Amino acid sequence: MTAIVNEFTKMRGLRLWPLLVAMVLVVFGGTALGIMSDPEFDPGAPGAWNHPLMGAAMALTMFSPLFVAVLASRLVDAEHLANGWLFSATTELPAGRLCRAKVVALGILLVATTGTGYLAVPTLGSLVGIEVPFPLGRWLGYGCCAMVIAVALLALHVLIAARFEDQLVGLGIGVLGLLIAAASQFFPTWAGHLLPWSYYALIIPAGYTADALAELPLSYPSIAALGCVVTALFLAATGRLDRKEL
Amino acid sequence: MSSIVATTDLTKRYGSTTVVDGLDLAVPEGSVYGFLGPNGSGKSTTMKMLLSLVQPTSGEVLLMERPMNRATRRGLLAHVGSLIEAPPGYGHLTGRENLRLAQRLLGLSERQVDQAVRTVRLQDHLDKKVRNYSLGMKQRLGIALALAREPRLLILDEPTNGLDPAGIEEIRELMRRLASRGTTIMVSSHLLGEIDKTATFLGILSQGRLIFQGSRADLFQAATPDVVLRCSDPPAAHRLLAARVPSTLTGQELHLAGLGDHHVAACVDTLVSHRIGVFDVRRREQSLEDVFRDLTAGGRL
After folding, report:
1. Which molecular function terms from Gene Ontology are attached (chain B) (predicted)?
2. Residue B1 has pLDDT above 70, yes or no
3. DSSP bridge pairs for B229
4. Which of A53, B66, B132, B243 lies 20 to 30 A from A243 at CA?
């Protein structure tokens, strides 16, 4: 717990606020675009909520991979610069435990920020006068799945940033991940299970079929499996880091 | 005097490279133990093994007469402060915020932190960001972080690295104050002049082996300074003695290396018996640097 509180102290002065604000604005902007981009949008139509849902999902898919990479890089790089790994080890906080504390602290920030941005769906939908009942279950379902993927990516990026002192490595992987997430919409379903970034394609809440924007099923079992596998791998990797000599 | 740090046959190998070889350290409690050695001699690796940051390949570490292992590590390190490699400090945070991080992790009181800060005389700079500290201030912050837990043993790895003379004097003065309060200090350096002024016991490492351990007086006794001899015919004297003893002719002086007193007397006898007048026989004054260089160049004692 103390280690997690310390991570929030370390975040001061790292200028994360512009990034967090940008994340919220991007999701709001994406949601608005989802509504305005269709000239035939009808707030009274049964599938009206698909527009803001799809807009928010596109924004999260496009922005989260890079957002997560930058967050992880900023907080982990502070340890490289401050000789923090060695100092923490002498205070009985080995590298693995430190990484776990960083994922928890950044995860809280990530969920809070993304959740705030995701409120754009009911907010903007109500503002434009969508009349049909709000699909709360579907909205929550997509939100939770997107958070699981984002936190899984966060865990991966914390490990990459800890392993490679040159933060360009992690940021480069983040950019690559963004491209994979964007392109994965066109992957076959089985290929969407290959890489963490491609899981975004498995949870797109709405998409264009032959003639209209329709609701798409969310792949909950796949996301649950991703969460379990990444958690197990992360714990194994950080356990190894705990025993690594400095 | 009991040893606060004792190692038995401490060895560390990386692959086929032996970095530390069979160290039997004994750091007396209450001393300032100068841990000397050229770069790459294994000083930092040894200190990391004492702190359990690196696992020994073989041998044992005893801190405060208890073996260092996974079970005892936490309890032992609570009494040990350290500054290894570069001083720690998050540059984007103030000195005060950096201390707060350590305070939370170690469960320290405000009194302990405050006392550590006053000991290093950093109280007027706590609200500055560490990135704006001078190197000396960063070193002092690192030492404050090590001191905050009121350790019985302080392990400092080259604390004066990169400091200007004023900064070096500050650290030296700090070590003297800490030692006078009974803290055992183990300080490594390749700045021999600094160790000479501060340490009461010395350990000299060369290529991973401890080639000397003892007091400063013991070290000078163990080392044999050159004999400098002036005579009436230096070239003839050199020709006469070079066949029997290591001899070099420098200007008008003959330098005889590694001779005990009886050998010196024998050399004088030889010269006199060959009708070479002996004007002056004396031992060359050696600084710790001279002794250290001689010892580590040959790896001998």
Report:
1. ATP binding; ATP hydrolysis activity
2. no
3. B254, B281
4. B66
**Cβ contacts of B162 on chain A, cutoff 8 Å:** none
Q: Cα(B188)–Cα(B27) distance, rounded to whole angstroms?
A: 13
User: Concatenated DSSP letters for A45-88?
Assistant: STTTTHHHHHHHHHHHHHHHHHHHHHHHHHHHHHHHHHTHHHHH
Q: Is residue A68 within 8 Å of residue A150, measured between CB atoms? A: yes
CATH (one of 3.30.70, 1.20.58, 3.30.750, 3.40.50) for B224-285? 3.30.70
- A78 in Cβ contact with A165 (< 8 Å): no
pLDDT (tens digit per residue) in A64-75 = 999 999 999 999
Domain B224-285 in the same topology as domain B3-221: no
* Contacts of residue A60, Cβ cutoff 8 Å, sequence gap at least 6: A27, A30, A114, A117, A118, A146, A150, A200
Q: Which of B73, B85, B105 sits opposite A6 (nearest CB)?
A: B105
Q: What is the pLDDT of residue B299?
A: 47
| Subunit contact B100:A5, Cβ cutoff 8 A | no
Q: Tokens at residue B288, please?
A: 């710790």
Closest chain A C-alpha to B144 CA, distance in angstroms: 13
Domain boundaries, chain B: 3-221, 224-285
Complex confidence, ipTM: 0.87
Read off the pLDDT of residues A161-206 as tens digits, 9 standing for 90 and up.
999 999 999 999 999 999 999 999 888 889 999 999 999 999 999 8
φ, ψ (nearest 5 deg) of residue B114: -60, -40
Residue type, A49: W
Which structural domain range is residue A95 located in?
Answer: 2-243
A245·B54 Cβ contact <8 A: yes
The answer, for B96 touching chain A at a CB cutoff of 8 Å, is no
Write down the pLDDT at residue B300. 45
Model confidence pTM above 0.95: no
Residue type, B120: V
- Residue B114 is encoded by which pair of tokens? 């405050």
CATH superfamily label, B3-221: P-loop containing nucleotide triphosphate hydrolases (3.40.50.300)
Other C-beta atoms closer than 10 Å to the C-beta of A55 total 27
Q: Do B84 and A86 touch (CB under 8 A)?
A: yes
- CA–CA gap between residue A109 and residue A16 (Å, rounded): 10
- As beta bridge partners, residue B185 has B32, B154
Q: Provide the pLDDT confidence category of residue A18 given band limits of 50, 70 and 90.
A: very high
Edge-to-edge strand ranges of the sheet holding B278-283 = B247-250, B253-256, B227-231, B278-283
CA distance B244 to B266: 11
Contact A110/A151 with Cβ under 8 angstroms? yes
A211: left (phi over 0), alpha (psi -120 to 50) or beta: alpha
